[in-house]
From TrEMBL:
<feature type="binding site">
    <location>
        <begin position="163"/>
        <end position="165"/>
    </location>
    <ligand>
        <name>substrate</name>
    </ligand>
</feature>
<dbReference type="InterPro" id="IPR020605">
    <property type="entry name" value="Octanoyltransferase_CS"/>
</dbReference>
<keyword id="KW-0012">Acyltransferase</keyword>
<feature type="site" description="Lowers pKa of active site Cys">
    <location>
        <position position="146"/>
    </location>
</feature>
<comment type="similarity">
    <text>Belongs to the LipB family.</text>
</comment>
<comment type="pathway">
    <text>Protein modification; protein lipoylation via endogenous pathway; protein N(6)-(lipoyl)lysine from octanoyl-[acyl-carrier-protein]: step 1/2.</text>
</comment>
<dbReference type="GO" id="GO:0033819">
    <property type="term" value="F:lipoyl(octanoyl) transferase activity"/>
</dbReference>
<feature type="domain" description="BPL/LPL catalytic">
    <location>
        <begin position="37"/>
        <end position="220"/>
    </location>
</feature>
<dbReference type="GO" id="GO:0009249">
    <property type="term" value="P:protein lipoylation"/>
</dbReference>
<comment type="function">
    <text>Catalyzes the transfer of endogenously produced octanoic acid from octanoyl-acyl-carrier-protein onto the lipoyl domains of lipoate-dependent enzymes. Lipoyl-ACP can also act as a substrate although octanoyl-ACP is likely to be the physiological substrate.</text>
</comment>
<keyword id="KW-0808">Transferase</keyword>
<keyword id="KW-0496">Mitochondrion</keyword>
<dbReference type="Pfam" id="PF21948">
    <property type="entry name" value="LplA-B_cat"/>
</dbReference>
<dbReference type="InterPro" id="IPR000544">
    <property type="entry name" value="Octanoyltransferase"/>
</dbReference>
<dbReference type="InterPro" id="IPR045864">
    <property type="entry name" value="aa-tRNA-synth_II/BPL/LPL"/>
</dbReference>
<feature type="active site" description="Acyl-thioester intermediate">
    <location>
        <position position="181"/>
    </location>
</feature>
<protein>
    <recommendedName>
        <fullName>Octanoyl-[acyl-carrier-protein]:protein N-octanoyltransferase LIPT2, mitochondrial</fullName>
        <ecNumber>2.3.1.181</ecNumber>
    </recommendedName>
</protein>
Length: 241
C-alpha cells in the first residue's frame, strides 16, 4: 500500500475553493481504487479568506440569524460536513486538509486519527517553543486557550477530509464574535501571541506537513514550488513515538 502523500500548497483561497479541492482529491482517490491502481494520498495546505463555519452539530433554524449577524462583519458563512460547532478561518491561520485512506495507512479509526493529528500539532508547537497539550475538548491547547481546532469527516469510514486549523498570526478578534467550538469558558490563542513574535503560515506549513508524516508513517512528495520556506533553524527534529 502506498504511503506517499502529495503535498499541495494552495495559498489564500475561499472556503468554497477549499471544498472543491477536497472533492477533487477524494474523487481521484475513489477512481484509483475502483481501477485497482495505487490510490493517491494528498495533504492540502492553505489559508481561507475570512469565513465562519458550522459543523454538523450546529445546523438548525437558529443559525439563520447568526449567519446574518456574522456576514455583517465582512466574513462569509458556511455550513459544512465536518464534525464540531462554529469556528473561524482567515488569513494567518494554517488550514491542513489531509486526504488520506486510513485503512491503507493502518490507522484503526477516527479516534486514533484525531489523536495523531493532535499529537502532530503538539510536536510542531514544541518545535517552535510553545508548550501545548490536549484536553478533554478536541484540539490542541495552550493552557485554557485553543491554538489549533480539529474537525474531520470520513467517507466510506476510511477516506478523510476536512482536518485542522492552526492559528499562526490570525487576528484573534474575529473569534470574539462567536463562542469558538461551543466552549463558553475558553478562548483561542495563536503562535504569534504565545511567542511574542510573528509566526507566518509559511513558517509553520512545512513543520506541520513533516509532523503529520512522522506521526502517520508517511513520506511527503511536495509539488514543484509548493514547499514554503521555514526559517526555524534551531528547531529540534520531530520524531514519532
Amino acid at each position: 500500500m502506498s504511503r506517499l502523500v502529495r503535498v499541495r500548497h494552495l495559498g489564500l483561497v475561499s472556503y468554497s475553493a477549499g471544498l472543491a479541492a477536497q472533492r477533487a482529491a477524494l474523487s481521484a482517490h475513489q477512481a484509483a481504487l475502483a481501477a485497482g491502481g495505487p490510490a493517491p494520498h494528498e495533504l492540502l495546505l492553505l489559508e481561507h479568506r475570512p469565513v465562519y463555519t458550522v459543523g454538523r452539530r450546529q445546523q438548525g433554524a437558529d443559525t439563520a440569524a447568526e449567519e446574518a449577524r456574522l456576514r455583517r462583519l465582512g466574513a462569509e458563512f458556511e455550513r459544512t460536513g465536518r464534525g464540531g460547532l462554529i469556528t473561524f478561518h482567515g488569513p494567518g491561520q494554517l488550514v491542513a486538509y489531509p486526504m488520506l485512506n486510513l485503512r491503507q495507512l493502518g490507522v484503526p479509526g477516527p479516534r486514533r486519527y484525531v489523536c495523531l493529528l493532535e499529537q502532530a500539532i503538539i510536536d510542531v508547537c514544541g518545535r517552535l517553543g510553545v508548550s501545548a497539550a490536549t484536553s478533554p475538548h478536541t484540539g490542541v491547547w495552550v493552557g485554557d486557550n485553543k491554538v489549533c481546532a480539529l474537525g474531520i469527516h470520513l467517507t466510506q469510514r476510511v477516506l478523510t477530509s476536512h482536518g485542522l486549523a492552526l492559528n499562526c498570526s490570525v487576528d484573534l478578534d474575529w473569534f470574539r464574535h462567536i463562542v469558538p467550538c461551543g466552549i463558553a469558558d475558553k478562548f483561542v490563542t495563536s503562535l504569534t501571541a504565545e511567542l511574542g513574535r510573528p509566526v507566518a503560515v509559511a513558517e509553520a506549513a512545512p513543520l506541520v506537513a513533516e509532523a503529520l508524516a512522522a506521526r502517520l508513517g508517511c513520506r511527503l512528495v511536495w509539488e514543484d514550488g509548493d514547499r514554503p520556506a521555514s526559517d526555524v533553524s534551531a528547531a529540534q527534529p520531530i520524531t514519532a513515538e
